[in-house]
Amino acid sequence: MNRLRNISLSLLAVAAFTSLAEAAEIAPGERRSGASFMSVETLAMQTDATANPGMLWVLDGEALWSRKPVAGRACADCHGDASSMRGVAVRYPAFDEKLNRPVDLEQRVNLCRVDHQQLPPLADESRDLLALTALIGRQSRGMPIETGTDSRLQTFIDKGRDAFMRRQGQLNLACTNCHDDNWDKRLAGSAITQAHPTGYPVYRLEWQGLGSLKRRLRNCMIGVRAQPYSADAPEMVELELYLMSRARGMPSETPAVRP
Amino acid sequence: MVSRRLALTLLSGSVATLLLTALVQAEELVPYAVVGDTIPLPLSGAVGDASAGRAIVVNRAYTCLLCHSGPFAEQRFQGDLAPSLAGIGSRWSEGQLRLRLVDASRLNAATIMPSYYRVDGLQRVGDAWLGKPILSAQQIDDVVAYLTTLRNPS
Known about the structure:
Oligomer: heterodimer
Shape of chain A: globular
Largest sheet of chain A: 3 strands, mixed
Order of helices and strands of chain A: HHHHEEHHHHEEEEHHE
Distance between the termini of chain B: 40 Å
CATH class of the largest domain in chain A: Mainly Alpha
Radius of gyration of chain A: 20 Å
Shape of chain B: globular
Helix content of chain A: 40-55%
Number of domains of chain A: 2
Structural class of chain B: mainly alpha
Largest interface: A-B, 33 and 33 residues
Number of strands of chain A: 7
Largest sheet of chain B: none
């Protein structure tokens, strides 16, 4: 009896190892946006610009884009119309020459404020920062995500990938445990999805507001009872970078709607 | 496990704060004996309370129903990442259930089932949960007592 149990335990261990080895990343042909897991009503809300609540932030962003600071220039004074931002958001996070590391779109906006507008940086998750990133993101709606093609980003992408694969928190779960291995399942009532950040900032029904990818990632980290990364932590940008490069080729949906 | 860590800390003569952490952990986690694939004895010294155990299992804050479903008709949202808990008391003995709850990773290193009574070997645990097991010894025994009542209708 005991022998038998030992044998079956070692079989279990073998099975465990194989399943570890097989826990592969999602093949390109099998990738699905979070939108494809949503109800028809929520999807319709995302697609119809007049029903998409995220468009309110885009409109706010338009106003901010051309608002002149007391001293100095507006975004529009350097960049022209917001449509000049077409194709930008789908390349972020991108390598910054001066800082010699990747920066995400929020950080890019704040670099412009500090360096070119002599304004203080906007706070993480503030209405204005969300409005500007929603406006810039909106210009690339429908375009394929391109993040990560720059070879200088590779080491940072690898670090983000390591973080995605690493178990953490009191529940001892890695992102990959849910988003690679169980994306076709439900966590209590919620579809798990493949964690492709195709539509950020997103309007999330649960938040009743717009939120950045960082806010989403903090939610998942707190969900496994881990200490979330702070907004400007290099680890946060690396994780965003890995996720965006993992979604390369998928069309941008910004501003998306999520349950 | 915990007492081994305590001994190591003592041996290496580490700073007082480390020692203190180890002592706190040693106080929090009661030692238990694993026999085969079981923990035969209750952690808290007495068999748990099944109705308290049910309340824990269906409470989202204790996370079971995020992954498992079971015979809880009143619960709208149940997960499907894990086997159903229906009939679980017919499949496993009390001692087997206790080990699976305390530290399922001992039986399957790749499992996603969290270890409900373990504080070591974890990374980046949030401040609010640091050094604490997910369930207390008493709660483990209560949940085990409840799970043993989930029998297949014969």
